[in-house]
Amino acid sequence: MQVNEYKPLIVAFCCNWCSYAGADLAGNNRLNYPADVKIIRVPCSCRVNPAFVLRAYQRGADGVLICGCHPGDCHYTTGNYYTRRRMALLFSMLSYLGIEKERTRVEWISAAEGAKFAATMNEFVKTVTDLGKNRRLEDLRCKK
Amino acid sequence: MQKISRFDIINRLKDLLADGNVDRVLGWKKGEFRYDVTPHVFTSAQELEADFVWGDFCGANFSKYLIKETAKSDKKVAVLLKPCDTYSFNQLLTEHRFDREKVYAVGVACDGMADIFKIKKITGDGISDIKENGEDLDVYTIYDEKPVKIKKTDVLSERCLSCKSKKHAAYDELLGGDGDVLDSNRFDEVAKIEAMTEEERYAFWQGELSRCIRCNACRDVCPACTCEKCVFDNPNSGMENKSPANEFEEKLFHIIRAFHVAGRCTDCGECSRVCPQRIPLHLLNRKFIKDINAFYGEYQAGEVVGSRAPLVDFDKEDVEPKNAVGKEDK
Amino acid sequence: MYKIKISDLPALFDKLSEKYDVFLPVDFDNGAKYKKYEKGDVLSEKLNTVKSPKDFFFPQTEDMMRFKTEGKKIDVIDIREPKDDFIVFGVTECDVKSFEVLDNVFLSEPADTYYAEKRAHGVLISRACSKPSETCFCKTYGIDPSEPSGDISTWKADGTLYLRPNTDKGEAVISVISGILTEADDDEVNKEKEKINKILDRLPLKNLTTEGFGAGKTAELFDRPEWAGLSQSCLGCGTCTFVCPTCQCYDIRDFKTNDGVIRYRCWDSCMYSEFTKMSAGQPRLTQKERFRQRFMHKLVYYPENNGGLYSCVGCGRCLQSCPISMNIVKVMKALGGKNE
Amino acid sequence: MQQRIGVFVCHCGTNIAATVDVSAVAAALGREPGVVFARDYQYMCSQAGQDMIKDAIKEYKLTGIVVCSCSPRMHEATFRKTAAAAGINPYMVEIANIREQCSWIHKDKDEGTEKAIILGRAAIAKVCLNVPLTAGEIPVTKRALVIGGGIAGIQTALDIADAGFEVDIVEKKPTIGGKMAQLDKTFPTLDCAACILTPKMVDAGQNEKIHIYSYSEVVSVGGFVGNFTVQIKKKARYVDETKCTGCGLCTEKCPVKNVPNEFNLGMDTRHAVYIPFAQAVPKVATIDPNYCLMLKNGKCGLCSKLCGAGAINYKQEDEIIENKYGAIVAATGYNPISMDKFDEFAYSQSKDVITSLEFERLMNAAGPTGGVLLRPSDNEHPKTIVFVQCVGSRCSADAGKGKEYCSKICCMYTAKHAMLTREKYPDTDVYVFYIDVRTPGKNFDEFYRRAAEQYGVHYIKGMVGKVSPEGKKLKVRGSDLIADKQLHIDADLVVLAAAIEPDKTARPLATMLTASMDTNDFFTEAHPKLRPVESPTAGVFLSGCCQGPKDIPETVAQAGAAASKVIGLLCHDKLTANPCVAHSDEWMCNGCSSCENVCPYHAITYVEKEFRMPDRTTKIRRVASVNPAVCQGCGACTVACPSGAMDLFGFSGKQISAEVDAICR
Amino acid sequence: MNNHEALMPLVAEIVDIRVDTPDVKTFTVLTPDGKKPFDHMPGQCAMVSAPGVGEAMFSITSSPTDTEKMEFSIKRCGGFTEYLHGVDVGQQITVRGPYGRPFPVDTEFKGKNLLFIAGGIGLAPLRSVINYCRDKKDDYGKIDIVYGSRSKDDLVDYAEILNEWCSDKNVNVHLTIDREQEGWDGHVGFVPNYVSELGFDTNRIGIICGPPIMIKFTLGNLTKLGFEKTQIYTTMELRMKCGIGKCGRCNIGSKYVCKDGPVFRFDELDELPDEY
Q1: In what side-by-side order are the strands of the sheet with D353-355?
Q2: How many domains does chain E have?
Q3: Which pLDDT value is given to residue D309?
Q4: Per-residue pLDDT for B103 more than 90?
Q5: Is residue E74 one of the residues assigned to a domain?
Q6: Which residues of chain A are modeled with pLDDT < 70?
Q7: Do A84 and B325 touch (CB under 8 A)?
Q8: Cβ contacts (< 8 Å) between C258 and chain D: which residues?
């Protein structure tokens, strides 16, 4: 029998103006990162509702990233400041409930930081791979 | 023993009704037993005389009822508010949930409320009467002629043990005088959980939340949960959910609920009081309060009407999530 | 009649759990709760578990079937697994009687096979209530807590547990444990019954009657002005319905999984504002109507359809759990015939 | 409504097809619920590809389409137009990015194909929940703002004004002109910078359509494309611009004479009241409050007494002016980087180590030496001059100093400087140390070769390691990589070709404009190739070196391009608004104001509205109302709203949740 | 009840979709092997569902006498019906049933004259009875059908009415539309008024179905004509979930619409609290 290597499932919410463009730039520059990362485009990181993060875990994600413009550079001026507060509290709560805090993360990646985007994804996939499958926030009904 | 007597309160309320300042009073109504007190709208002096109670079991926070009550008529309603209730009162005003002009707020001094569950842990079931006796409670059961003497401080409800304030944040008039904001130990429990290992925390909450029966009592009693329609009842929210189908949904409900009231929760403790499964839900809300204080500076929801809640505010120098999580004490 | 020393109960549970899944009320920090027996678990002395044993037969959430779709095709998959025999131990008489109420609904034609199968496999071992609570009012409905029914009745007296099988299912269980039981006569049990009956006379709600309620009272009760006052503080939560051993409303919902759709049912509450809402409107507009529905159903509509049987067994759970301490006793006293 | 979705998978030549099995993707996506048509094709964005989409929409009565192709930032607009042309709402289009975020980053074809299918599935899940959106219209203020009055700003303003639109220039210095005004000659034609610039300055100053706010700064920007509201701070210059005739009497008589003259980079002095240079526009004096005796301690007042026009006004205060604009052009220019971190070149130790811009002033007839090349230390003619190129340019990221990019103009101006020196002073030895000489441009390489071959400039491939002042000489130690030897040159003057960087004011301005910047603080373009003069923020355009290093002709060309984009915008009476805006379900809104608090655009207001309740009573409720013309669609309110009454068109909670589900399936 | 689990649905396939009006379609369904899913009596309902989309109760509009197929006429009114209106032939759905008390066609209706009164989509639940009675015409007396809609285009089953019902000897069809319309030379006016105008004698059983307001006025007008509530029937469809009288949703007083209804006699409805 072939041993299946564990491949994590990562959902990355990327803001349209910076991080999504950063991801595009990583592509333009052919910078590799694992296919485990799937990107969802949102107008701004502040569009990311904590419910989306939980939903991703429910549905089987092993890690969730929220990527936005650097604080101060938000296309909408202040959106990512709210993201920062919301996610700091959400992540703190998840950790409080005993959910591995390394699974969820906020990263600020500008449109010019293709290399950072790729590097971040590589590193995050490794972190989540090391953590293993998400068991504490999964919904068994969603398993295949 | 509460500082102010039932008698004094009734007299004042009767005056208010007689003066025509108000045409009804939101107060506590006696039940079958000493401890099953029900919120009630009293409309006459006779009704007050007959059924109004004030004592160690008047835990219910009336603030949320004001939304419905003020919409009923143009006349003022008098409401009795314990110090902790006044924070909810202010928070609701901040969120434009009722018309202040239609309310006459009577602050009552509070000495803490007793927890019937704690009493029963000592006496067992079969309570026939509870009498206040100075600092003690005399609890009579059908199994014994003689009462069980209990120190009230031993059966104080959890939220009163870590009372944040004896000072009223809002009132039109005070009965029994005002107290001080207390240097409370209310974050100790949270800190204890934070100090656990990740596995322990997971096991702790798994155990607590697995009891949830999703009766929505916590939500429906919560003065911060005043949505016209809760996202969990709304098929269009993508979050609609009715039952704690599994561990995930148990957590989802409580995480989202805590998040939705984060920065708005005044820590009144009603959620834990009403939970039929006695899940310490306030420890979720309190975690957010503690974090908000640690990350963004001290903030007490409902302390000042019109204050901007921390989650709809920001500072350019706010802590990064990765530097925040797990470092709440710094 | 058989007996076994209380101190030997662990042996009894061990023996039973060789053949059955045994569930018994166990004390937890936050109240008693039914738990699958594991070595070392001790039978709770508490009268009421927070959640009633109806959960074993009509679980709060129950997956019913799975649908797989491909293109325009649908496949319906029955996902039920064969149910093993199980024992619910230590059920108080009020809770035992609650199954009569539920059976009338779920087993009447067309039968609810999900419930029926569990009932077929479940064994109820009841217990006499030696220490009723102030919130108990089973007597109101003619239920005798000193004379419990179920598949096996048990009494605790003087350090001994007495067991009496009532049904074939009960006999089958006894035969599993007969090796550790001894035969007994009724004397101790009768004494215990007497003791219990004396206590019942001291209960504060002993005089509560159903007078004024029952079949045919709809017109009389429906428009009573008291409903407004009684319901005015109701939060509209589902606590009373979810702790109630006889409430049986449910919702059927679909959940989209990564592999098809699961159709499940879950407890619902007539107290919820969403309960009767539909695209065409909401026939019970305010909490008053919803509150009234719950109590009218328990005290009038249900008896009308079920030969006068009330859909309340007086277990008192709602008296203990309601966030605002409004409950069926207060309703009966306000609207009933001779109550105060 | 049951959707009928068409899926179009693009090969993008081999860009996608090489690492993604496009036909397998089309086949897999064709089986998704709701999909009634799925096909792959060579180039979806080609005319033939678009026609295929249009035909499929009509033939299969598609209600929505998914294009699996390059980034939506590339071609979303293209395919929306295609959809609209075929009669479906342009917002019923979703793009699955299987090039930038899939084929280009993955090498394994199976992996790429699998991911492409998942991304496609997410797009299908989303489009099934798309709703047709109609863009609203917003009026356009027919006036532009140009920030920065250098050659980029001036040219942009002139071109916009030429098309008949009002345009304002905000310049932080007392005069427009910028860096070009400080230059001597320009490469490769060697014509005089002032001779070609000053007529444009005069034109700008005299053009009726152009208003110059000199000695002014932008302090706040609100609004959005077509409707910006900008506050401009006019700094107090203590001279009434409307009265000052620019006669210059005050600037000659002012008793404070020792103020370092910034126009000559501090190589000479000016008075406390000054006009930066003779051709300044506006030609109006400015009093420097840091030096003016009257302003500092209330004693003097000489200029006021002398001024026949009575223009001096010591009581003048900063003034905030608020104007409305339809478009904004950033033309904030550049500066040479500070030489502080380049101690090896002894810039701070010796007056005779100068930057190229300082060299420009030394060669300029209006400069501190009247155009005679003299060493700053002793005013002697330098006999040996060493030019060092790439000082701070093309540094490695871990050098801890300098810039990674090439400053682009240094090779050419150094060649110019070397050539001019040899022409004026043939007895001077000129060495140029270079890493590479980069001369792509019309007549550039010819120019460089002339310097090296005809003018005898010594070009040395190599870097200067150290410059040490010894007596009157500067010992220059460098390496000659071609001869493979170390060189020691005793130089009289060392000229550093300092890297150029964006002006420091650009970063705060970008924040105000909500325009993005790269890590070097250059403004980013909406697209590096296809939209090089637009910023990603609608209505904000880029001109000159604020976008990246460039020479004068490139700057002028870009200025014209930016102007034409502005003109194109201002030509419209109305703009189509972004329909992906927030909207509130009034029945669910509980009036808590959370959304109002987080909205960066003040697009949300609360209104008291009468509602007919289910029980047929009426109730006044306080509910949120979104102004769709002002909302920019960030979505902050949707998360702030606890009841979920706020949602965002185009990115609704349900749509994003559906994407999550599809990805995790 | 067929020999099947009460809550376990059958898979059925939509084999034909007929567009009746702009917002009503009639779906013909068969099991995947081409049979009628189950037998029923006129007036009974079935739960139709698309997994993950929704489940709802609909009247079976085909007659029990049609042994080949089952039909549902469904009006588009949001949610699940929206979905159904978007599907193509060949789409599978699930059905379970039959549910509820049928019209008493074999008891009270037997040998009687019948007066069917329907408004709009209200004809759909009655079509099953009408066709049943037509097919067994010897068992019943004269049949009158008063049917009205907003316009000619909103008349459900129009072709069948013209081609089949109207040509039946013992059937009298009275059509009306609310407002004048080009190409309509029939009666114009509201159904309740038309019923009064037609002035039926009371020697018949009335069966009404339509919008609540129409039912209310028709009932009043029939009473004026001398009808007793005991001889008028209606059928309701509301908030049913389980279909077998257990989930509690359709409970009104002591009745469950899904089990004790959906067919009610008006005197029975009078007994119920006004919560529908």
Answers
A1: D353-355, D493-498, D384-391, D429-434, D458-461
A2: 2
A3: 92
A4: yes
A5: yes
A6: 1-4, 144
A7: no
A8: 664-665
The order of strands in the sheet holding B38-42 is B38-42, B24-29, B77-81, B103-108, B173-175
Assess whether E211 and E151 both reside in one domain: yes
Q: How confident is the model at residue E2 (pLDDT cuts 50, 70, 90)?
A: very low
Report whether CATH 3.40.50 matches the domain D5-127: yes
In a domain, A127, yes or no: yes
User: Does E269 reside within a domain?
Assistant: no
Per-residue pLDDT of D343-380, as tens digits, reads: 999 999 999 999 999 999 999 999 999 999 999 999 99
Chain A within 8 Å of C222 (Cβ-Cβ)?
no
- Name the C residues in 60-99 with CB < 8 Å from any B CB: 60-61
- Phi, then psi, of C330 in degrees rounded to 5: -65, -35
CATH number for the region D336-500 comes to: 3.50.50.60
What are the chain D neighbours of E85 within 8 Å (beta carbons)?
A: 2
For chain B, list the contacting chains (3+ Cβ pairs, <8 Å): A, C, D
Q: How does pLDDT run across B161-170, given as a tens digit for each residue?
A: 999 999 999 9
- Could you say which residues from 29 to 68 on chain D have a Cβ atom under 8 Å away from some Cβ of chain A? none
> Between the CA of residue D269 and those of B221, D272, D302, D430, what are the distances in Å?
76, 10, 19, 29
Q: How many domains does chain A contain in total?
A: 1
* Residues 179-198, chain C, touching B (beta carbon < 8 A): none
Q: What pLDDT digit, counting tens, does each position of C204-244 carry?
A: 999 999 999 999 999 999 999 999 999 999 999 999 999 99
A60 within a domain of the structure (yes/no): yes
Disruptive mutation site among A96, A106, A131, A134 for chain B (greatest number of B CBs within 10 Å): A96
Class of domain D582-649: alpha beta
pLDDT at residue D612 in the model? 87
If asked whether residues E133 and E187 sit together in one domain, one would say yes
Task: Quick: pLDDT tens for D4-19.
Answer: 999 999 999 999 999 9
What is the C-alpha to C-alpha distance for residues D600 and D607, in angstroms, rounded to an integer?
A: 19
CB B118 within 8 A of CB B157: yes
Does E64 share its domain with E165? no
Residues E88, E118 within the same domain: no
Question: Does pTM surpass 0.95?
Answer: no
What lies within 8 Å, CB to CB, of B47 at 6+ separation is: none
Domain interval for residue E176: 114-235
Please indicate if any CB of chain C lies within 8 Å of the CB of E84.
no
In the 3-class helix/strand/coil scheme, how is E238-265 assigned residue by residue?
CCCCCCCCCCCCCEECCEEHHHHCEEEE
| Length in residues, chain A | 144
Is the distance from CB of B64 to CB of B221 less than 8 angstroms?
A: yes
DSSP label at B109? Answer: -
Q: Does one domain contain both E58 and E118?
A: no
Any domain includes A4:
no
pLDDT tens digits for D411-442? 999 999 999 999 999 999 999 999 999 999 99
Chain E residue with CA closest to D36: the answer is E88
| Host domain of residue A109 | 10-17+26-142
Give chain B's mean pLDDT: 92
- Residue A86 counted as domain residue: yes
**CATH code for the structural domain at D143-234+321-333+503-570:** 3.50.50.60
In this structure, what CATH number is given to the domain that contains residue E50? 2.40.30.10
Residue ranges matching CATH 3.50.50.60 in chain D: 143-234+321-333+503-570, 336-500
Cis amide bond preceding A50, omega within 30: no
Chain B positions touching A140 (Cβ under 8 A) are: 246, 248
- pLDDT band for C280, please (50, 70, 90 cuts): low
Q: Which two tokens stand for residue C218?
A: 């709809």
- In a shared domain, residues E122 and E228: yes
Quote the tokens at residue E188.
């114009």
Q: What ipTM, to 2 d.p.?
A: 0.92
When pLDDT is averaged across residues B35-42 and rounded to a whole number, the result is: 95
Average pLDDT over residues E170-181: 92
